[in-house]
Design goal:
The complex is a heterodimer of chains A (314) and B (420).
Chain A (H helix, E strand, L loop, with lengths): L7 H11 L10 H29 L2 E3 L5 E3 L3 H8 L1 H17 L2 H12 L7 H13 L2 H12 L5 H8 L11 H29 L3 H9 L4 H29 L3 H7 L6 H4 L2 H11 L3 H29 L4
Antiparallel strand pairs in A: 1-2
Helix pairs in contact in A: 2-15, 3-15, 4-9, 4-11, 5-9, 6-9, 7-12, 9-11, 11-15, 14-15
Chain B lengths: L1 H13 L1 H6 L13 E7 L5 H14 L3 E7 L2 H14 L5 E4 L1 H9 L7 H7 L8 H6 L1 E2 L2 E2 L1 E3 L1 E2 L2 E6 H7 L10 H11 L7 E3 L5 H11 L5 E2 L2 E2 L4 H15 L6 H6 L2 H6 L3 E7 L3 H5 L2 H6 E4 L9 E3 L3 E4 L6 H11 L2 H9 L4 E2 L6 H6 L6 H5 L4 E3 L6 H12 L9 H20 L1
Parallel strand pairs in B: 1-2, 1-3, 9-12, 14-17
Antiparallel strand pairs in B: 3-15, 4-5, 6-15, 7-16, 8-12, 8-13, 10-11
The chains are: A mainly alpha (314), B alpha/beta (420).
Chain lengths: 314, 420
């Protein structure tokens, strides 16, 4: 029993105070729905319906020119039994790990670019952002030339230091790293822009106060920038993870079919493409796509759970 | 909020198939009472020649016009399949042996047997192996337009420099090996030969030359001892340094290395003669002869056929075009444009004369012992097993025997699945 028994009225008042504010009147709601409807319809037609279809087709065997027969869970059994699936999954997780390297890189560059009085920020921002707006196909082709074992720039430069020439994208031991590096290179600019905006939103007073207290730049970065940036970082890490789990185009362009490292670099989406469009195994491909979706959804859910531990809002 | 984000991420994952499945090819007739037949093909090098053929056809049939729909090789079959499903496939299109049985078995091609009998199309003027490649269950679905064989191309300047005589029709594998050793010059990064992982022009000919086989009676030949011997002949060249490893040929394929005079001998198709001719150095000192003899004299023969989509609503006009393409006049025009060997007997002279510097006659002489390109109903499935499984051995890591046997087993499994 409490020392200060609260009256029923006080309790009620308390409850009222913690309750969210009542909803505004539904005036104008119809208009609001009208405005979001086009996007909603777009999602329904281009995302939701195909998702349902994919789920349905994953239980069927598909004729190469249309028509399908129900096969139950055969496709799922095939996917889970297939070694190449597990290999592709392993590769995909490696890409995901490498892809996340873009985040710390982007944060550091963003923090450096956000220093007051720095000139030419726009030029830097543009320079870093250009790779992101370039087509992955173009990026892949250019990097293939840089990596080229016979007359690539990379080997040429390494040659000055006495390093032997190396076939970067066709040696299984370096292919994943080589592709991963290009992934990081081409996405860093995107996260850079997000982080720069995030850092801009941090009130200047904090920094000024910290400076008065004698905190150096590193200290300010770790005690102010990083914690206050955590919501942005969280958003970026979710996006980054989803994107790298779905990676396909860059690998497709950079590898080619006759590459001896093709099995060591194939991503899950790459395998999906091969099954669906080359080997006429659309049913199994659909099952694979659906499992990948579950995986992405699961990992994203996990991230949302974990964010409570490290994301600070305000 | 949380749930919605989750959903979106999931949706994004599922969207991949839809995006890839989108195709926006349209086929339509233009106005004015003329029927427009769309003609699907993949080789840009053949477009000028095809335009001439089409002009001749349109002259004969003023009420029909033919429009070329060019799709790059890399996406040709994917696009075709999806457009077939969507009902927008070209009326007439190119078909190859690899894909033919799949298309025929699913009734998406128009049977031509009756048309052929009715219009007395000169089918017998085309090589019999090729005509047979395009019949399924006794029904003819395609008519050959050209054929190609594989020959040994060589660089005379590099041979002169090494002081050895040029390859000729008497050459055996031993001669090829000796010459490759002599021609290899590591300091200038010149290799004697290219043991490239390329099924049609390198792997299959080597397997057959060693007395092995790729596919026979629904069974894989990769585990066969002779086949392994053929493959070992190739990987041996890599292990000894006379050929670049496959890892190097991913970035610069054998053909390109030959063009830039970094390799002295390559296997390549007759259809590539025009491109060889376009390289000034090769026009000047390139040569070609038959493939050297292993245990047997052999080459792989393949040719493209014209087929009609079963879903086409202009079948009458489409047939007129296919019939014309199988005739003498079209073959002559095609041969004269120097792109491929027309399959119509007796029209090849024009092709031979189009590049007098090359001794192209060898390609036609090889027809008699050419092995038809191996194919089954789902060829792509087992063909796709080859490069990943053989890759390590072709990169100088050894173990071709085991790789070939594993491939044989996996291919047999795929063949069994395709029958069930």
């Amino acid at each position: 029993m409490s020392l200060f028994p609260a009256t029923a009225a006080a309790k009620a008042a308390d409850r009222r105070a913690t309750k969210p504010a009542p909803r505004p009147a539904p005036r104008g709601q119809r208009a609001a729905y009208g405005f979001i409807a086009p996007l909603g319809i777009g999602f329904a037609v281009f995302y939701f319906w195909p998702m349902i279809q994919t789920f349905y087709f994953s239980f069927t065997e598909f004729g190469p020119f249309g028509g399908h027969t129900w096969t139950g869970t055969d496709n799922y059994a095939r996917v889970l039994r297939d070694v190449t699936v597990w290999q592709a999954l392993g590769n995909t997780l490696i890409y995901c790990g490498i892809g996340l390297v873009a985040l710390p890189l982007a944060i550091v560059v963003a923090a450096l670019l956000n220093r007051r009085g720095l000139r030419g920020v726009a030029v830097y921002r543009a320079l870093y952002f250009v790779p992101f707006v370039t087509l992955p196909v173009a990026v892949g082709l250019v990097w293939n030339w840089l990596y080229n074992g016979d007359f690539g720039l990379l080997n040429e430069i390494l040659g000055w230091f006495g390093v032997d020439r190396h076939y970067w994208v066709s040696d299984p031991s370096t292919a994943v790293l080589a592709i991963g590096a290009v992934m990081v290179w081409s996405t860093t600019g995107y996260y850079l822009i997000i982080f720069m905006a995030g850092i801009k939103a941090i009130p200047r007073d904090y920094y000024e106060a910290a400076e008065l207290d004698g905190a150096g730049p590193l200290r300010r970065f770790f005690t102010i920038t990083l914690p206050l940036l955590s919501p942005t970082l969280f958003f970026a890490s979710v996006i980054c993870m989803i994107q790298s789990l779905q990676t396909f185009d860059l690998i497709y362009i950079m590898m080619g079919e006759k590459n001896p490292a093709v099995g060591d670099t194939q991503s899950v989406v790459g395998l999906f493409y091969k099954w669906a469009f080359i080997e006429n195994a659309q049913g199994a491909a659909a099952a694979l796509a659906f499992l990948l979706m579950l995986l992405i959804a699961g990992l994203t859910y996990l991230q949302f759970r974990l964010q409570r531990k490290w994301v600070h809002y305000g | 909020m949380r749930r919605r984000t989750l959903l979106c991420s999931g949706l994004a994952a599922a969207s991949a198939p839809v995006l890839a499945a989108c195709s926006d090819e349209g086929g339509s007739a233009d106005g004015g009472g003329r029927t427009t037949v769309s003609y699907g093909m993949w080789d840009p090098a053949q477009v000028p020649g095809m335009k001439k053929v089409i002009a001749a056809f349109e002259e004969q049939h003023p009420d029909i016009s033919v429009r070329i729909e060019l799709t790059p090789w890399a996406s040709y079959w994917t696009t075709l399949k999806t457009s077939m499903r969507g009902g927008t496939a070209p009326d007439v299109f190119w078909m190859n042996a690899v894909n033919f049985q799949l298309y025929a078995a699913h009734d998406v091609l128009e049977p031509l047997t009756e048309h052929i009998a009715h219009d007395r199309t000169p089918v017998d003027r085309h090589p019999e192996q090729l005509v047979r490649l395009y019949s399924y269950d006794g029904v003819q679905y395609g008519l050959p337009k050209d054929f190609d064989t594989i020959g040994l191309w060589y660089n005379k300047a590099l041979f002169d420099k090494a002081g050895i005589s040029y390859p000729d029709t008497t050459w055996t594998w031993d001669d090829l090996r000796d010459a490759a050793a002599e021609l290899t010059n590591p300091r200038e990064r010149v290799h004697g030969f290219c043991s490239e992982m390329q099924r049609q022009i390198v792997l299959y000919p080597a397997i057959h030359a060693a007395g092995g086989y790729v596919l026979r009676d629904g069974h894989s030949g990769f585990g066969d001892e002779r086949s392994v011997e053929g493959l070992r002949f190739l990987t041996d060249m890599i292990d000894r340094g006379w050929s670049p490893p496959q890892s190097a040929m991913v970035e610069n394929i054998g053909r390109v290395r030959f063009w830039s005079e970094k390799v002295a001998m390559v296997h390549d198709l007759s259809a590539m003669a025009g491109q060889m001719y376009a390289v000034p150095a090769l026009k000047d000192h390139g040569g070609v002869t038959v493939l050297p003899q292993g245990r047997e004299h052999t080459t792989i023969i393949h040719g493209l056929a014209n087929v009609i989509s079963a879903k086409s609503d202009k079948k009458a006009a489409a047939w007129k075009f296919v019939h014309f393409m199988a005739g003498r006049r079209a073959a002559e025009i095609q041969a004269a444009s120097g792109v491929t060997i027309s399959s119509y007997a007796g029209t090849q002279d024009a092709w031979l004369k189009s590049m007098p510097e090359f001794d192209l006659k060898h390609f036609i002489d090889m027809e008699k012992y050419g092995v038809p390109y191996p194919s089954s109903k789902n060829t792509a499935v087992w063909e796709n097993l080859q490069y990943p499984l053989l890759g390590a051995a072709f990169s100088g890591k050894g173990g071709i025997e085991d790789a070939a046997r594993t491939l044989g087993k996996q291919m047999d499994r795929a063949l069994k699945e395709e029958r069930s």
